[in-house]
Every structure is written in C-alpha cells, then in structure tokens.
Amino acid sequence: MAESDCNSDCSYDTDDSEYNFIPGHVNIDDIKVEDDENFSLGVEEAEPDPENYKPYEDEPIATEEWLSEYKKRQETQVEFERKLQDRYDGKHLVNSWCKCGACSAEYLQNPNEFQCCVEIEECVECLSSEMVIAEVGTKPNCVTQHPGFGQVCLQKWSLRLAAEKYKTRNKTKYRQTGTENRG
What is the pTM of this model? Predict the structure, then answer.
C-alpha cells in the first residue's frame, strides 16, 4: 500500500506541469479545429504526386557559363592525370619535374605519386606557415625539411596508425608492401 501511495504522490505526468512545457512548442492535440476547408497547420504533403513527379526538378538548371567552367575543370583534370601518367611511364625524368630537389621515383608505385611537393597546394601552404618558418628559420624548399616530417611520415608506428584512418583514392585501405624495413 505504501508503494502505491508513493507512486501517486511522486507522479509528474500532468499536462500542465512546468516540467512538460517547451517554449515555442505547441501541442497539436491542444488545437481545436473546426470544419474549415481552408485551415492548415502549414504542413505540406511529404509524398510527391507520382503522375507529375520529375527527378531533379528542384535542382538548379546548369547555365552555359557553369557548363563551360565544368568542362574546363574536367579538361584540366584529364591533362593533369595524363602528365602524371607520362611521368610514371618514364617519358619525363624526375629532374625535369621535381622543383624541390628531393624527389625520387625509386619507391613510387602509381601515377598519382609522381608529384613534387611544390606542386601540391597543401604542402606549399604548410611550408609557408609562420610556425614552420619560425621553427626552421626560413621557408623550407621541400616537405622533407618540415620539422615534423620525420616524426609523422617516417616513423613506423606513426605510419601504422595513420594507415588505419586513410584510404586510397579507390576507397581501399592501405596495405603493407613489405618495404617497411628498408633503410
């Protein structure tokens, strides 16, 4: 009997409780709707009419200007990939495209790796940061001269941890190639 007394005395299930009040919230059940055909709660139907539905109809139409820019970006990307493939195929020697003086093709395994750090915008930005220049004294010519390069990019355990977080452009995980113990 004492348990039932406590349950009834401790209940907070009343609708008028300040604990159930959410500012700006209107409970739809509390609204009295009379038979008015023009009354609306502002909720639109979720399902489109299948007879009149057209895929992508809400998407903006591409303008000639946008289409032209898109084609230019695509052509630039194709040309860039062709350039990397030529480097990979040996049509251009490393000393013809390396600007930092530290590139080597010895361990590179696919065309995307045939880039000089100076060609990668993020590397240039990193090498130009005030913190790096303050640490080194002058802007480094190559990402291998970055103060954190050895600890982040060359240490076996750092690489193992990073490999789990990253994927290749083909969305596959990096795999060990057996080159881990090379000097």
Answer: 0.54
